[in-house]
Amino acid sequence: MSAPILTVENMDVSFKIASENYKALENITFSVYPNEVVGIVGESGCGKSLTSQAILGILPKNAIVEQGKMKYKHVDLRELKDKDWRKIRGKNISMIFQEPMTALNPLVTVGKQISEGLKVHTSYSKDEMKKRTIQMMEKVGLPRAKELYKAYPHQLSGGMQQRVVIAIALIAEPDLIIADEPTTALDVTIQAQILALFRKIKYERKSSMIFISHDWGVIRNICDRVLVMYAGHIVEEGTLSEILNNPKHPYTKALIQAIPDHRKRGIELFTIPGKVPSLQDRKRDVCPFADRCSHRFDACDKEVPKIERIEGTHAAKCHLYTKEAGLHRDYTNH
Amino acid sequence: MTTPIIEVEDLHKFFKQARKNSLDKNKYVRAVNEVSFSLCEGESFGLVGESGSGKSTLGQVILQLIKQTSGTVKYRGKNVSSFTKKELKAWRRQVQIVFQNPYASLNPKKSIGWTVEEPLHIHKIGDRVFRRQRAIEVLEEVGLDHSFMDRYPHELSGGQRQRIAIATAIILEPEFIVIDEGVSALDVSVQAQILNLLKKLQRKYKLTYLFISHDLNVVQYFCNRIAVMYLGEIIEIGKTVELGSSPKHPYTKGLFSSILSIEEADELKLLEGDLHRFSNDIEACPFHDRCKFAMDICQSVKPKRQKVGNYHEVGCHLYDIKNENKESILKVN
Ligand SMILES: Nc1ncnc2c1ncn2[C@@H]1O[C@H](COP(=O)(O)OP(=O)(O)OP(=O)(O)O)[C@@H](O)[C@H]1O
Ligand SMILES: Nc1ncnc2c1ncn2[C@@H]1O[C@H](COP(=O)(O)OP(=O)(O)OP(=O)(O)O)[C@@H](O)[C@H]1O
Ligand SMILES: [Mg+2]
Ligand SMILES: [Mg+2]
């Protein structure tokens, strides 16, 4: 296998809340290879967006990277100054934000916002930039591109705003795209179109993506590999089929069980009892999922499980699979 | 049948085109066009359709957050445009909305507790202690603990903000809620929790939902009826069981076949044709220039909604009684 385009190693991120430090990400380790789409799933508040913000150096002010390495190819991302970031963001790594309106400037026309990436990273003429911007708008399926070029964000529907954000991220042809719920605001036909566009970019440009989504149908259709996060930990990772067809961690299994579909009409949906604990309430030296787990046993309350390789690329952070607790492996067959 | 809780009659909402100084005075975006339908008490009505087809606009016009260009909205038989100030205020308590973009609807400078309690404030309900207690109660219901009371919107994840918006909408125990992509930002387990909660509230208070979502899996799970919008119009409407299992309109067929399932992958089914170019041709079928079954008549006469089942209506010339090709066309599908 070729060298990864992105590596994250043992990264911890904390928030300062009322002069106390609370860990929000613990021991995050993963790589993204060229031409690979890595999905991140997990319940709301478990740290998916935070992981991408940490990589891009755009954490909230009260957050700190306590330790860990983050490398884009050979560049140490933690060492970058603002001006270095400006060269990299958009051109090498770009981000599609979860909430489009927060990423858009309400006072600037969408055409201007999309072409900004070309202005910063290329020396195209004005006309060329406009032409490419309109082409990009068409590629992401924005209707009436020439007219919308001059529109302001509030004049667009939610899904149209989201496509503007996608256009901004793609225009300078980055080789790593971090997409946070990029298709959540889109209807299924446009979602299919955007996924087809992502696939095409992957195929033609050999780009890589980190794809955050809670929509398993989308994950299924775009990702090569999947990371499952819970309460700031990566609790399971594997290829798409390993995760979907043979999930190991009780949390992953439960998530998959909660997926709604029309065949479940009239039936109460399965939910995982309890909720993701807030940062202040997280227990630190035990399995983070123990309180909500239906397979909990004594080991779970003694220490944080180590990530254990199950086979090949498939690994889980669960005592059911650790060597010491090997006898409990039987549990996992049901 | 009882009086519907909401009746929408021939509703229109036009926006001025983005381009300024346009010479063409007819350049309006017909965000909502000729929309009529009604909602019965206690139902969950799903509104789906292409992005930009006017779903959010329709929801907001119904609640009079945006004024319609023409047409009427009735609430329990009464025209909402004729409400007196007092009636309007009382009505505002009965109807709520969960906005598509939760971040924009939360005041960044106010604590979550303040935001969730605000509706109680506005309607002068309870004292300080009661309000706080009640806010904590609804936070719990949407799966957030009391520690969120003293936090601020920017400290929350996307899904947490979404739940604040839902908490604010249910705190007054309204009769009717427009939920605009209200569960889209939620992961499946919290989503399941919220959907279960909405169902529970519905049983308890006979709540009615207008549920706007592009997640057809969720809509089919949650809603008993579905309307499909395209370019501002409702082109198909029916019971979920009927419409979901046998969509009639070519657009609806395309829409339902684009649902991504976790059981199969690979071939992405793309709806053919260009995305809508905005034709101002109001005489034509809104879908004609993308439709692979388009006939001559589709360019000149806009189809009326007609019955294709007990509670199932579709606006498409393929289903005209006189259409001789009907049988063969329908078989192809
Ligand atoms: N500025 C902040 N101060 C304190 N806590 C914060 C701040 N920003 C985020 N958090 C907390 O950090 C945790 C992780 O947040 P993150 O946005 O990464 O969640 P997420 O996995 O992306 O969730 P979602 O699916 O809802 O978007 C959450 O519990 C959140 O409340
Ligand atoms: N304030 C406005 N000024 C001008 N045009 C507007 C305004 N608000 C909405 N529109 C236009 O009206 C149309 C319908 O928008 P609306 O937000 O209702 O769509 P939607 O169906 O909710 O889409 P989505 O699924 O993307 O949220 C779009 O073409 C949009 O650009
Ligand atoms: Mg997030
Ligand atoms: Mg909308």
Short description:
The complex is a heterodimer of chains A (334) and B (333). By secondary structure, chain A is an alpha/beta fold.
Describe what this molecule looks like in 3D.
The complex is a heterodimer of chains A (334) and B (333). Chain A has 334 residues and is α/β, with parallel strands linked by helices. Helices cover 30% and strands 23% of the residues of chain A. Chain A has helices spanning 48-55, 82-88, 100-103, 110-121, 126-139, 145-148, 158-170, 188-205, 216-222, 240-245, 250-257, and strands at 6-17, 20-32, 37-41, 63-72, 75-76, 93-96, 176-180, 208-212, 225-230, 233-239, 308-311, 314-316. Chain B has twelve helices and twelve strands. Chain B is globular and about 70 Å long. The two termini of chain B are 35 Å apart. The model of chain B has no long low-confidence stretch (mean pLDDT 87). Classes of the chains: A alpha/beta (334), B alpha/beta (333). Chains A and B meet through helix 3, helix 7, helix 8, helix 9 and helix 11 of A and helix 3, helix 6, helix 7 and helix 8 of B. Bound molecules: adenosine-5'-triphosphate (2 copies) and magnesium ion (MG) (2 copies). One magnesium ion (MG) binds at residues 55-56, 100, 180 of chain B.
Enumerate how many helices of chain B there are, as a single number.
Answer: 12
The appropriate CATH architecture of the largest domain in chain B is 3-Layer(aba) Sandwich
- Rg value of chain A: 21 Å
Report how far the terminal alpha carbons of chain B are from each other.
35 Å
Q: How do the strands of the widest beta sheet of chain B line up side by side?
A: 6-7-8-3-9-10-12-11
Indicate the proportion of strand residues of chain A. 15-25%
Number of self-contained structural domains of chain B: 2
| Helix percentage range of chain B | 25-40%
Distance between the termini of chain A: 35 Å
Structural class of chain A: alpha/beta
Oligomer: heterodimer
State the low-pLDDT regions of chain B, or none.
Answer: none
